[in-house]
Amino acid sequence: xxxxxxxxxxxxxxxxxxxxxxxxxxxxxxxxxxxxxxxxxxxxxxxxxxxxxxxxxxxxxxxxxxxxxxxxxxxxxxxxxxxxxxxxxxxxxxxxxxxxxxxxxxxxxxxxxxxxxxxxxxxxxx
Length: 126
What we know:
- There is one protein chain.
- By secondary structure, the protein is mostly beta strands.
- The chain has no helices and eleven strands.
């Protein structure tokens, strides 16, 4: 089992920044990827960004490229999502997810993740 706890959400004005954190605990040795997804009211869950844990490869949704950065701290088993130049359309609940196993599955697909955090609300006012 892997436990994920997100933090760092909040209310920010358009153009502002927030940094989300996701701390992983439990059986994290088998982690193959960690990702960030978001879900706005009435909309489907959407991929935001992810990092392949062993290879270090990064992936971003087109809507956040150039504005969001995903990073990790291996020693702390923590992944971060730095969000700059925030827009009202970025408003959503943001979820951290972990993929475990020897084989890396597509990191942009939510169904390939095995564990999810509880989510943290990000609200961007215009």
